[in-house]
Specification:
This protein has 6 helices and no strands. With 196 residues, the protein is mainly α. Pathway: Cofactor biosynthesis; ubiquinone biosynthesis. InterPro entries: Ferritin-like_SF (IPR009078), Ubq_synth_Coq7 (IPR011566).
């Protein structure tokens, strides 16, 4: 039986049963298209982050957390793949997948406090990133289906951040520093993904 601090086997997800929005990409402002590219890259990195955990740790709770959260991130990625055709996506996808694997493997290898701190920090940043995208979409392209997609993904990311924080609410300063670096790199990655 899992300990009281164990991650849930299957975290609830706001994207369960959510159909991909049917968007007329030619009618969307270029700024929204760039944001969709950034979201597609972000979800690619997230899936790869959790993929990177498997070879880096044998901790059963970390592995369980990674597997259950990967399922949700994979659902997000499928939704963005359905919205954004390959020719509209970022070019260096191999680089994004590699960076996600490193972002998952390194903290998992260092230990649970590092892994949970990185996940909590990055997912909290992604929650805010989606909130900013939602505000922008409301102004520039207030399509209800697009807004529902972004909000459902935002809710899931917020839950992931809370799950990780609950499992290690007081990580050492070194883990917090690594999480800060991961957030900084995520911010840079999102900016780059809008253009490359």
């Amino acid at each position: 039986m899992p300990s009281p601090n164990s991650p849930p086997e299957a975290p609830p997800s706001a994207t369960i049963g959510l159909a991909p929005p049917r968007l007329d990409l030619s009618a969307l402002p270029p700024r929204i298209l760039r944001e969709l590219r950034a979201s597609h890259v972000g979800e690619t990195v997230a899936v790869s982050l959790y993929d990177g955990v498997a070879g880096a740790t044998t901790d059963p709770e970390v592995l369980r957390f990674a597997a259950s959260h990967r399922r949700v991130e994979r659902r997000h990625l499928r939704l963005f793949e359905a919205v954004l055709p390959p020719e509209r996506r970022s070019g260096p996808m191999a680089f994004w997948r590699w960076s996600g694997r490193v972002m998952g493997a390194l903290p998992a290898w260092l230990g649970p406090p590092y892994f949970y701190a990185v996940v909590a920090g990055v997912e909290a940043w992604v929650d805010g990133h989606y909130a900013r995208q939602i505000a922008l979409a409301r102004r520039l392209a207030p399509d209800p289906d697009l807004l529902n997609l972004l909000e459902a993904c935002r809710l899931d990311e917020s839950l992931h951040a809370r799950d990780a924080t609950r499992l290690d609410p007081a990580p050492p300063w070194t883990a917090r520093a690594l999480a800060g670096l991961a957030v900084f790199l995520s911010r840079l990655g999102a900016r780059a993904a809008r253009w490359v």
